[in-house]
Amino acid sequence: MAFRNVAMRVLLLMVVVSAAYAKGKEEKKESADGPAASGPAASGPGGEYDITKLGAKPDGKTDSTKAVEEAWASACGGTGKQTIVIPKGDFLTGALNFTGPCKGDSVTIKLEGNLLASNDLSKFPSNWIEIMRIKNLVITGKGSIDGQGKAVWTKNSCQKNYNCKILPNSLVLDFCDDALIEGISIINSKFFHMNIYECKGVTVKDVKVSAPGDSPNTDGIHMGDSSNVNIIDTTIAVGDDCISIGPGSKQVNISGVTCGPGHGISIGSLGRYKDEKDVTDIHVKNCVFKGSTNGLRIKSYEDSKSPLVASKISYENIKMDDSGYPIIIDQKYCPNKLCTAKGDSSRVTVKDVTFKNITGTSSTPEAVSLLCSDKKPCEGVTMSDVKIEYSGKNNKTMAVCTNVKVTATGVDKANACAA
């Protein structure tokens, strides 16, 4: 019995030693090969990854692409709530690809510093910051996403060529659900500042988007094939559309937006490509336009490729401050005379559009321009309490309307379409 107890003790000791040896061997391997698969503990526990702990330099010159992507890989691969911290400073990067789905409940990017896009276009196969197939994403902070577009805007040939090479968009959300972009600034993009595609449930709140008024194709926020998009209390001053609502957009709510300079808040352009999807349930309210070249605009190509419908659109409580073409539906849209239509071939239907309490001043005599198609006249257009006055010296405010019947109440005579 005593012998048996001794033997058991020896066996137990061998097991303990063996386990300790295996653990030590594994620790040595991890030390040699780098962190475990869960990613580097960049700033301690809790799933928070500070890019400066991973080698990013806040000098605006050192390429920090690798450090930012390492932080993303760790956060996306972790469980629970994960956070990436971009602290104060300037961080230069090339293309950043943040692809999911992620393992955890959510990923938050705390942007307190500034991300700067490289001006070496060879670093961008397509976009700059592309976030794809992510659920429960938050980008928040007081920092900025700076596209540094001024250095490359002269390379944009899209004003002359339909098939131009597209410069990188700054922030792109593809196939993302339940995303919040809040508090940050997006500035001087090489092309669009923000592009939302095939997403459900995106909120942009208290964001500042800015670029010079003459910067080419620098749309503030563009969306397409997306639903339940909310843009709230955001200021946009750019060289193209402040907000452009592309084909396939539905359940869009825009409130408290200030636009200008820029080309206005536009639905479209529609009909440029085949098999585009309908646009419906678009609501714009409590917005201000300051010196924009357009105001509330719906635009479709004269030579539209496929039939589609834009419907259930409302504009309410809008203030115009010396903006051009404050209310405009243009079904013969043809930028830079690049269209191929011979005559009126529009296949886009515009219907059920409401303008309510639209007031202020226009920089063009045409305060209201409803230029609808011969083959597809606008349907169900309603105007109430529309009072816009041309700010020019002769005060010849007018409404230009073709192929549309308008139901109007409380509309200034100068803003009313003739019966």
What does this molecule look like?
The chain is mainly beta and 419 residues long. Helices cover 11% and strands 45% of the residues. The protein has two helices and 32 strands. The strands form two sheets. It has a 21-stranded parallel beta sheet that branches. It has an eleven-stranded parallel beta sheet with strand order 5-8-11-14-17-20-23-25-27-29-31. The radius of gyration is 27 Å and the shape is elongated. Residues 1-39 and 41-45 have low confidence and may be disordered. It comes from Hordeum vulgare subsp. vulgare. This is Exopolygalacturonase. Belongs to the glycosyl hydrolase 28 family.
Structural class, from secondary structure content? Answer: mainly beta
Oligomer: single chain
Biggest sheet features: 21 strands, parallel
Strand content: 35-45%
**Number of extended strands:** 32
- How far is the N terminus from the C terminus? 113 Å
- Tally of helical runs: 2
Average predicted confidence as pLDDT: 88
Shape: elongated
Using the CA coordinates, give the radius of gyration.
27 Å
Uncertain runs are: 1-39, 41-45
Fraction of residues in H or I helices: 10-25%
Task: Record the SSE blueprint.
Layout: H1 2-33, E1 48-50, E2 59-63, H2 65-77, E3 81-86, E4 90-93, E5 96-99, E6 106-111, E7 114-117, E8 129-132, E9 135-140, E10 144-146, E11 171-174, E12 177-182, E13 185-187, E14 194-197, E15 200-205, E16 208-210, E17 221-224, E18 227-232, E19 235-237, E20 243-245, E21 250-255, E22 258-259, E23 265-270, E24 279-290, E25 296-301, E26 308-323, E27 327-333, E28 348-362, E29 366-371, E30 378-390, E31 398-402, E32 404-409
